[in-house]
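tool_call predict_complex ligand=acetoacetyl-coenzyme A
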Amino acid sequence: MYETILVEHRGPVALVTLNRPKALNALSDQLVTDLGHAIDAAEADDNIGAIVITGSEKAFAAGADIKEVARFTYMDVYQSNFITAKWERVARCRKPVVAAVAGYALGGGCELAMMCDFILAADNVKFGQPEITIGTIPGAGGTQRLTRFVGKSKAMEMVLTGRNMDAAEAERTGLVSRIVPMAELVDEAVRVAERIANLSRPIAMMAKESVNKAYETTLAEGVAFERRLMHATFAVEDRKEGMTAFTEKRQPVWKHC
Ligand code: CAA
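tool_result ok
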């Protein structure tokens, strides 16, 4: 169905595997288009409650496809709004998205991982923004999201030198939520995504929206936004079910409405 990705449903989880092994999953226009369509499909599918995006053991993605990009002129990139416009589809997904990252996550690969809601990474992971070494700078949010994740000093060093960050540093700096042994990475990411998908889906969407607000606004505005969304949970049937189930000492039965 897709040229450059594989999509598999594992229960309520859509597992999307980037699949250009010969190019270390370089993010060609076709791949980014396929990924966008897969997100569209997962969002439209009521059976899917969460998405996992992964790559191979060697590479989550080694960045934008340099061979494709090398021939672009200024007008090509300006008129097509390269890179961000299409790639942002992942960041705009309203259902929870987990990145399961092993091997190289460089340039656009690092940026794609950071567009997901959180990152589980394998012990062999290497994050980096090496664009400066090929004469350009990150263009899919790298200078912005990396700085928010790891702070100015480390982000600046990585963007200015192009050096990679290993698993221990990524965990220490909060770029990833957890490091997982390579052999368990995808199963663990699916397990976590399934856990989320099996909770109330509208409530999970509200929780995600509220956390994301923290990146876009002041603390006072963010806390006010959170309070209003928390009030909105009281209009959701699942909120009533969750609290009733607690008081009745039973598991809640979510209706996702
Ligand atoms: N684009 C296109 N092809 C790529 C690629 C990329 N980003 N990364 C790797 N490949 C291809 C290689 O050209 C090679 O193909 P051939 O066999 O046809 O020559 C194949 O994948 C395997 O790669 P290597 O032989 O280089 O594998 P390695 O293990 O020796 O090195 C690596 C791995 C360190 C990741 C190295 O491939 C590399 O440095 N890749 C480029 C990383 C990079 O600069 N990414 C940033 C791209 S720019 C960007 O993302 C944003 C932007 O444009 C603004």
